[in-house]
User: Fold this.
Amino acid sequence: MAWLAALLLAGCAPKPEQPSPADIQAARRAAVEFELRLKREITGRLEREEDPVAVYMSYADHTPDWGREISNELELNFSRTALGVRNPANAPDAWESRQLEMFNFYMDAGLDPDTFEIAEIVQEGEETVFRWMQPVRMMDTCLTCHGEKIDPRIKLLLAQEYPLDEAAGYAEGQIGGAYSVRKVLRVKDQPAPPWTPIPAPQTPLADQRLPGDAPLVAPVATPSAEAPQQ
Ligand code: HEC
Assistant:
């Protein structure tokens, strides 16, 4: 009768903790704020047919910092990620990879990615964490830098600054990654310590970077990385 006992126990198991509506609202707000800035300062300029190289410089200089500013404003960790990233600092963790794979799976099954959103409370070691994710789609303007046919000048810049780039070759409408929010709620069942603002990174701006400088993003050695060709 072991199976019956197991069934009864499962019936009595406490329900998993549900994320609070306030945290979900804050996560959505973070994503909307990022999207508005991306529209105003990047894709809007491409729509007005500004030089894509100038827009690229602005993107590489400022976009990583927007995530930091939004995080500090809303006191949560907001970031962007993807299964194949341009900047290794944006690589997904195990929970994010799983959600990204699910997003792709559901899209392939015919569901509308614009309706996808996941919010969960998960235990990560001693931390009880609110996690949230929403996919982002590649639009026409995104393809200037993430598509198959990229302006050769931007290709050069990408090769120089993001030598490990895995975020090109997309077609319009594909899921190009996701917005992700992580907020520690409790540590060892005690309320999380107050938010400590994330400091600004010390990255040189585009007009201070020179050809031959170290890549904007230092390549990270991974055990699976192939040995450089001699
Ligand atoms: C002007 C060039 C340019 C345009 C246009 C552009 N991107 Fe990017 N994208 C980049 C660069 C450069 C990075 C790396 C930023 C960093 O260092 O964090 C990046 C990073 C990303 C990332 C984070 C994951 C990663 O690969 O590092 C996502 C997601 C993303 N872009 C989606 C989009 C979407 C969606 C659009 C259109 C709405 C878009 N991008 C438009 C250049 C561009």
User: Anything to note?
Assistant: The radius of gyration is 20 Å.
